Amino acid sequence: MAATQPPVTTLPPPPASRATVPAADRPSRRLARLGWAALGLFALTNAWAVAASEPDRMMGHLQKIMYAHVPTAWSAFVAFFLVFVASIAYLWTRRDRWDHLALASAEVGTLLTAITLVLGSIWGKPTWGVWWTWDPRLTTTAIMLMIYAGYLALRAFVDERERAARWAAVVGILGFVNVPIVYMSVRWWRTLHQVQSSPRSMDSTYLVGLLVNSIAILFVLAWLIAARAEAARLEAEAETLAEHRALGPLAGERRA
């Protein structure tokens, strides 16, 4: 009589924990936490600045739009400076991580520039009586928006990834020339837009609110760029993997 085998006991899978989280998912989780923290900080600093400052004598509560308008414009400048630096680094090293940083910074900077123009129009309608005027500051900012929108369009229409990165790097370097022109436009030409304020020309309450909001939106900027650069890296890896799979049978036939 044959001996019977003991029943095989199947153990349930261990519960999910931080130790079992795939390594590829950890950056996305860290970025998600950073994003919530950055957005929460920006919401808190804006709420505090608006509540703590008195209405302006000339513009009333409308003046408080600067707590979002000015830091957004400054952060767009920072983003385009990163495009400039990353583009030079990519042409020098040809490393994809610099191209991913340039792409992410360009996308975020373009978004922030569009928000800057929208907020400026909201402020300009009751102040100047029009939503838009061809003021030097507004005009140069609109040109800056079109330059980097063209940068993104170039990357989208060139199929070969390396060629698109090279051409976009050149545009990212040359396009940055317009950024200091935007900043200095209110000093070089007669303009409706006010000249940049200084700590001496601002009330301390407005100044502190502006500074804390600028720091907060820099955290938002860092989160957006980091998240988009990580997405660009994953997209490049997926595209490379798809190419290898598509060329696999052909490569096997050639070896045979």
What does this 3D model show about the protein?
This protein is mainly alpha-helical. The protein has one domain. 73% of the residues lie in helices and 0% in strands. It has helices at residues 26-52, 66-93, 96-128, 136-157, 161-175, 178-188, 204-255. Helix 1 runs antiparallel to helix 7 (204-255) and helix 2 (66-93) packs antiparallel against helix 3. The protein starts with 25 loop residues before the first helix and ends with a helix.
Give a quick rundown of the structure.
Helix 2 runs antiparallel to helix 3, helix 3 runs antiparallel to helix 4 and helix 4 runs antiparallel to helix 6. It is built from 7 helices and no strands.
Please describe the biggest sheet, giving its number of strands, its sense, and whether it closes into a barrel. Answer: none
Count of distinct structural domains: 1
Mean pLDDT over the full residue set? 83
Helix content: over 70%
| Strand content range | under 5%
Q: How many DSSP helices?
A: 7
**What ranges have pLDDT less than 50 throughout 5 or more consecutive residues?**
15-21, 252-256
Instruction: Write down the secondary-structure element order.
Output: HHHHHHH
Structural class: mainly alpha
Q: What general outline do the C-alpha atoms trace?
A: globular
Head-to-tail CA distance between termini: 54 Å
Number of strands: 0
Q: Give me the Rg, rounded.
A: 25 Å
